[in-house]
Amino acid sequence: MEIFVLAFFALGYLVLAGADIGVGMVLPYLGRTAAERREVIAAIAPFFLGNEVWLVATAGVLAGLFPELEGELLSGNYTVVVALVLSWVVRDMGLWLRGRLPGPRWQTFWDGAIVAGSWGLALGWGVLLCHVLVGMPPALVVAVLVVAALFATHGLAFAALRLRGTLRERAAVLSGGAGEGRTYLLTAAALTAVGVLAGLRLPLEPGTSGPVLVPVILTLIPLLVAAQGWVWWTFRHRVTGPSYL
């Protein structure tokens, strides 16, 4: 049961947060002006904080139910983990701060932070996942770039589902017109497959706290899913203008 709980949160993060990471990666392509970039960001504004909850939950489950694995992952990938955290902070700072002042230089700087942080997250997760999958051969670089491209494609599909007009046309460049839903499902399945394959190579030996923590976590999961579903239902319509960000 502990393994399924970890997989639920980890895979949920890859699929849900992978979309807003991907949108951040392709922000310069989608938004050619400051106004367009603000509208593109509005596509992920209602979701990115909720998506990050899945990462926090994954870290908590890992620490509580798989303490030995957590230690191995942190000690063996310390540089990558630090880079991931820094990228996360930089990306979120960009999202929160870009609209606080009206100056074009200010907004351009934080737009750059969003792009840099998003690429840092995609490459960081790519390194971590591919390190588990293929070790450290020369093929690691290619594998990491493939995973990063998968994040970007996932983001394009999500943006195509959320945006309108010219922005939607740009986002749907890989989806064949109205096929963004199909593309989103395919990229979600691909991210899930990468996560599952990486998980199968990990020494998933639960600790001794499972009988205590698992019932608590199982009680909280319906609340998390319900909250996520409410957000998606509330913001199910396409973006019509800039958001609070």
Describe the structure.
This protein is mostly helical and 245 residues long. The protein is built from 11 helices and no strands.
Itemize the secondary structure elements and their pairings.
Elements: H1 2-25, H2 27-30, H3 34-44, H4 48-65, H5 67-76, H6 78-97, H7 104-134, H8 139-162, H9 165-171, H10 180-200, H11 210-234
Helix pairs in contact: 1-4, 1-7, 1-8, 1-10, 4-5, 4-11, 6-7, 7-8, 7-10, 8-9, 8-10
Order of helices and strands: HHHHHHHHHHH
Give the overall pLDDT as a whole number: 89
Report the end-to-end length measured between terminal Cα atoms.
39 Å
Low-confidence stretches: none
Quick overview:
The mean pLDDT is 89. The protein is 80% helix and 0% strand. It is mostly helical and 245 residues long.
